[in-house]
Amino acid sequence: MKKSITFVLLFVSTLFYAQGHDVIGKWKTIDDQSGEAKSVIEIYEKSGKIYGKVIEIFDAKHRKDRCNGCAGEDANKPILGLTVIKGLSKDGDEYNSGKILDPKNGKVYKCLITLESKDKLKVRGYIGFAVLGRTQYWNRVK
């Protein structure tokens, strides 16, 4: 009986622990070249896919910037509020098969994200193969 109760408690605590280690939430973007915090992206789930939109821009000079290089439905939209991560699917420990938009230049890349720790997210944008790309590490906003 004691073993059964211990097992159930261990199982339930594992579920709660796993829920706290999800990509859903607010993430502070860190520029991979300068190391500066640039913005906050809110990652959310919609219809079983993962999306992320810009909800805060730290540099006041750039808060009203528009995505001038963007094409299609994102053309000339304000960067603040823009959905930059689109349609990622969970695949084991990573999310992939989606796209990420760089609003600085309007280019769209394939994307994969991996939770490195509960408060650190690895974001990789690439062309063709994941080897040919750029990686940023984002920090969870608490």
From TrEMBL:
Gene3D superfamilies: 2.40.128.520
Keyword Transmembrane helix tagged: no
Signal peptide bounds: 1-18
Keyword annotations from UniProtKB, A to Z: Signal
InterPro entries: DUF2147
Keyword Nucleotide-binding applies: no
Residue ranges annotated for the DUF2147 domain, each copy included: 25-140
Protein name per Swiss-Prot or TrEMBL: DUF2147 domain-containing protein
Organism: Flavobacterium hiemivividum
Lineage of the species this protein comes from: Bacteria, Pseudomonadati, Bacteroidota, Flavobacteriia, Flavobacteriales
